[in-house]
Design a protein that fits this description.
Number of helices: 19
Structural class: mainly alpha
Order of helices and strands: HHHHHHHHHHHHHHHHHHH
Helix content: over 70%
Shape: extended
Strand content: under 5%
Largest sheet: none
Number of strands: 0
Number of domains: 4
Length: 660
């Protein structure tokens, strides 16, 4: 149990953690007059307003071991000073910095004396002697910068603490104003919690005012809780929350006794004490002593371990060294027997990484062996990484070779497709597929892309065989290129917005297109489709009314089939079939209308059916107009095929008979 003299008057508000020894603080720190030791890792828990971040962020341990720099020469000492003052942890390295300065001064004085004696011995006058090498100038400049940084640090900290003091005084005044205020108790309590939160987020204040302002804050907090006694439900809710949180803290403190790293357990315990003191309010009176006693008991276990750790420090360092050496031997074994395939190498690397993590988690070792241990660790790690990189470098070379092989097969298929006699390569295509399967590993992401391209080219080849595809005849290539160029020019033309001028414009372009030459088969069909698409696009972009656009497109369709009797017949049958289907759908909707009892515009279902019916009738009318036009073309075609006879009526619309 902790001594009673170290126990706060209120066990849930005042908490001090007694560590057997205090850490040596950086030079210039306000706490430098405290007892120090070189092997203690943690300080006692700070008071409520003690500085929370007195120096740049600390590393895993704050122990400062004063080193011996007597073996370094003056240049090395200057470099050592610059390295330590520029380091991120410069503030916690004050003793070693002073040691470097002291060592340098002693050696430099001896150096000056040596140079002066040599100068006088050679006949020089002592008053003319001057010796200030470059490393001395750099050394002096480094000291000036170091002193400036320390001065700025303390000035900034003092200013920050004064601002924090003013802020906390304002919070206390705000706490006073909450008492007896005529406002909803829930709103008052919410303001109180906000003030509490602001208090805890505000940083440390000057040490001289720390205890006094904390006692004042605690006093007014207790007064406020007494004021809240009128609303016991809220108070009990806060008590319950604080109780649950303190139980969690106690359980965490009890769990720390299982952690093998005593230094880490000690640091974590300090954090838990700060949470207990600063972040949580009181609990019900009947639980206060019980919780505090339990928390102290868990804390004492860690304190006892820390005291034992300090006594057995040398033995622990030796034990840590043995653990690290055992791991290094295992890591050396992995290094000497690295496998040469991906899966086994991956497993070996995973095992090695686990050992690395375990090695780094082990605490300090004796100073005598520390450097050798880390040097061996780094060399093994470096060698394994070098072997791993070399393995995967060779793998990448092999993969690049496989990628090139697959790309070569794809290009070969593309070349076959370009040959006029592409059909004769069917056996080669089958062998190409076998060659593809024989190629080695390629990374999945690229492999999928290559496979998709290869498969599409192969499918194109075999689809051509199934469909009877014919490549463009060499004699048709020039005609095909001319028609392609003609279609491209169409896309940039301006088209008349009226129907009749459009017909003349289209007929002229169609005639020009046909005069470029003749294509056959699929090539001709594709070219005509491209021609139509180009004109359809012009129609859609034009200023024509929609009805005119429809008639213009019909004119194009009729023009395409007017000289092809079979195509004309198929088109008439297709339009008739479409009209029949639309009529059937319209009849079904008309039958559905008979079942509506509510045929007003307020019935959305009725409105929807009638709207659909109107659209269908419009479509039917449109197709009937197309059918009329197609039949007219058919009659004209039939008239062309029948030779004129004597007595035939010159007006076909008045009669189709012949004279006697």
């Amino acid at each position: 149990m902790a001594d009673t003299k170290n126990k706060a008057n209120d066990p849930q508000e005042e908490v001090k953690i007694d560590s057997p020894k205090a850490i040596s603080t950086p030079e210039g720190d306000p706490n430098e007059n405290q007892n120090t030791t070189e092997i203690t890792d943690e300080v006692a828990a700070p008071t409520e307003d003690s500085p929370k971040k007195e120096a740049p962020e600390k590393t895993e341990t704050t122990i400062e071991v004063v080193q011996d720099f007597s073996q370094l020469d003056l240049t090395e000492l200057a470099e050592e000073l610059q390295k330590r003052t520029k380091a991120q942890q410069w503030f916690s390295n004050g003793k070693n910095i002073q040691k470097v300065i002291h060592t340098f001064d002693g050696k430099f004085k001896a150096k000056i004396q040596e140079k002066k004696e040599a100068f006088i011995k050679e006949g020089g006058n002592e008053i003319d002697f001057y010796f200030k090498p470059k490393y001395k100038n750099e050394f002096d400049q480094t000291i000036r910068e170091y002193k400036k940084n320390k001065r700025n640090y303390f000035q900034e900290r003092e200013q920050s603490q004064k601002l924090n003091l003013d802020r906390k005084l304002e919070i206390i005044e705000s706490l006073k104003e909450l008492i007896n205020i005529d406002e909803n108790i829930n709103m008052i309590y919410k303001k109180f919690k906000n003030l509490q939160d602001s208090w805890h987020k505000t940083g440390p204040v000057p040490r001289a005012q720390s205890n006094n302002i904390w006692q004042t804050y605690k006093h007014h907090t207790e007064i406020f809780y007494d004021f809240l006694h009128l609303n016991r439900e809220l108070r009990d809710l806060d008590f319950k929350h604080n109780y649950e949180e303190k139980i969690k803290i106690i359980e965490q403190a009890e769990a720390l006794s299982e952690i093998p790293d005593v230094l880490k357990a000690s640091r974590d315990l300090n954090t838990l004490h700060r949470l207990w003191k600063n972040d949580l309010g009181p609990v019900a009176k009947e639980h206060r002593e019980e919780l505090w006693t339990r928390f102290q008991a868990a804390s004492q276990i860690i304190h006892a371990k820390r005291q034992e750790f300090d006594k057995e420090y040398d033995n622990i360092l030796e034990e840590n060294l043995n653990k690290k050496n055992a791991l290094l031997d295992q890591m050396e074994g992995i290094k000497n027997k690295l496998p040469q395939n991906h899966s086994e190498l991956r497993k070996a690397i995973d095992d090695f990484n686990k050992m690395r993590n375990e090695f780094q988690s082990i605490g300090q070792v004796t100073r005598k062996h520390s450097k050798n241990s880390w040097t061996r660790f780094r060399e093994i790690s470096r060698e394994i990484n070098r072997e791993k990189n070399q393995f995967y470098k060779s793998q990448k070379a092999e993969q690049k070779k496989n990628i090139d092989l697959k790309k070569g097969l794809i290009n070969e298929v593309k070349e076959i497709l370009e040959h006029d006699d592409w059909r004769s390569y069917s056996n080669r295509m089958k062998n190409i597929q076998k060659d593809w399967r024989a190629v080695g590993f390629v990374p999945r992401k690229l492999s999928n892309a290559l496979w998709d391209e290869f498969r599409s080219q192969c499918n194109l080849y075999f689809d051509r065989i199934k469909s009877g595809y014919q490549r463009i005849n060499k004699n048709e290539i020039a005609v095909h290129d001319k028609k392609e160029e003609f279609i491209k020019r169409i896309q940039g033309l301006q088209m008349p917005p009226e129907l009749e001028p459009f017909k003349e414009f289209y007929n002229y372009q169609w005639e020009e297109y046909n005069q470029l030459g003749t294509l056959t088969g699929n090539t001709n069909r594709k070219s005509v489709e491209d021609f139509n698409k180009a004109f359809f696009s012009l129609i859609d972009k034009s200023d024509m009314e929609q009805s005119v656009q429809a008639e213009a497109k019909n004119h194009m369709r009729f023009s395409m089939i007017k000289d092809d009797e079979n195509e004309l017949y198929r088109e008439i049958q297709n339009v008739k079939k479409t009209i029949e289907d639309l009529n059937g759908e319209a009849r079904q909707l008309e039958n559905n209308l008979d079942y509506f009892s509510n045929t007003s515009s307020d019935n959305p279902l009725f409105v929807d059916v009638t709207s659909r019916l109107d659209k269908l009738k419009s479509e039917i009318d449109k197709h009937k107009e197309q059918l009329v036009g197609l039949r007219k073309i058919k009659r004209e075609m039939e008239d062309k095929n029948v030779p004129p006879q004597e007595g035939t009526d010159e007006n076909p619309e008045e009669g189709n008979g012949t004279g006697g």
